[in-house]
Fold this protein.
Amino acid sequence: TAEVLRNLCWQVHESDNGPKKWQRIAERIEALFGARLNEPRYIKERGEVVMDYRTRDGITLDLSASGRGQQQTLLLLAHMAVHPGAVLLLDEPDAHLEILRQRQIYQVLTDQAGETGSQIIAASHSEVILNEAADRDMVIAFVGQPHRIDDRGSQVLKALRDIGFEHYYLAEESGWVLYLEGSTDLAMLRAFAIALNHPARQALDRPFVHYVANQPRKAQEHFHALREAKKDLAGIAIYDRLDSNLPDDPRLVQRMWTRRELENYLCQRETLLAYAEEHGRRQQGDLFGAAWRKAMDEAIQQVENALRTLGKDPWSADIKASDEFLDPLFKQFYKTFDLPDFMSKTDYHALAAFVSAGAIDPEIGQALDAIVAAASAAKARGAA
């Protein structure tokens, strides 16, 4: 690669108006990578072109010592300078570049193409490149029948700009989208599906999920923006209990838990005791399971009494189980053993494995059924 690059740079330097073209390329490389290119030199005795560059620290290195991203960018700039009016077919031109450089590279390449009358046709999965292109160039999705998705007369461009191309791409790939309050909800639903051996297990393995912080409006706006690009997109949103009724939406299936939040369905005495016993066995051996179970029972009683003093029922559907019950419970539980609190809200899904199938609220199964229905209605990429 370095030898080809040296020869190409030599051609730029020796072409019509070569020094000016070379200076322009060198300026762009320095702005992008901080490397100051020295002019290529032809060594007659050896019949070869040599070329080096200086780093920010003033160290001179051979061109072959530069990074792949720098070499690739220089290759494209030099080729367009030597062959004005060319059509370049590029496969993932951003592959060797970190995210922060991708937008900058896109700008440099399009500027160079404009100056040299060249045309660039590039394949890319980079959301940075795709979002830039959607705003100013032509973007074609090769999903099913190839089609333009940068039509400035529709809402597709707005969707790409506001929510990112990767969301549209995922919508095309999966055909359905799941809206949840946060990532802990997905982990808990997946754990419940495993505990029930529910068909939703497969749907929840690799879902297109978008977290909306329990805001139905955000879910609806996101969903309908995507539907501007994919008319047959299916969707389901599951919220923690809202203070108002669910908004009407004929396209997006929406549900909310009758209990305060999903963690409430894990708040069962026997579940917590079973978790503590198993955790004790793993930490200290089989003989200590009973001791850890007893410690959890005592912690439950203490937190239970404290909440009742405040006029709250720890097992109520109205309590915010994660913050008001489980957080102080596990803090007290681990304090018994002089251990740091190993359990946080992000780990509460682990409790689902200790809820017996008969103790799992039917509402959980109904929600999983609804997820399966949404996934089954999906028309994913390549589907008839």
